[in-house]
Amino acid sequence: MNPLKIEEVQQYVEQNIGVFHSKRIAGLTGLKLGKVLAKKNPYLFKAKYLLTAQDIIKSLTDAFISSQEETIFGDWLEGLAIFINEKVYDGRKSGIPGIDLEFDKDGFRHIVTIKSGPSWGNSSQKAKMVSDFRTAQKTLRTSNSNIMVRAVNGCCYGKDRNPDKGDYFKLCGQQFWKFISDESELYVNMIEPLGHRAREKNDEFMESYAKRINLFTREFADKFCMSDGSIDWNKFVRLNSGS
Question: Does 197 score more than 80 pLDDT?
Answer without folding.
Answer: no
